Amino acid sequence: MYEVFTTTHFSSGHHLRNYPGNCEKPHGHNWKVKVIMRADELDELGMALDFRDLKAALKVIIDDLDHRDLNEHPAFQQENPSSENIARYIFAELKKSLSSDRYRPHKVTVLETDACGVSYSEE
């Protein structure tokens, strides 16, 4: 089993609906994101997954979240744009755009700060 990973970041605002505290008010974060993909075998070049392909697929997702109010994003109209839901959303989008018989998303970690974050995985 191979694990290929990359990290990136984005900036956005959000608020947590019905939250009993300060996070109910609009505020922003410089989110950090780590994506781990798993591959069962290597391709003919000896790679599990080309970093270029992983970064390109992730960039499309991150660009859609960057510098916007996440509460207005279609994915978060009915649920709060919490770190948990953001991690699950990025995972699901990667699963749609970057999965094959050899590799698949394994884990997405989203950090609101250097000290606080959450990971989502389906395994």
Automatic annotation (TrEMBL):
Its EC number is 4.-.-.-. Zn(2+) binds at residues 14, 27, 29. Keywords: Lyase, Metal-binding, Queuosine biosynthesis, Zinc. InterPro entries: 6-PTP_synth/QueD, 6-PTP_synth/QueD_sf. Pfam families: PTPS. Belongs to the PTPS family. QueD subfamily. This is 6-carboxy-5,6,7,8-tetrahydropterin synthase. The lineage of its organism: Bacteria, Pseudomonadati, Thermodesulfobacteriota, Desulfobulbia, Desulfobulbales.
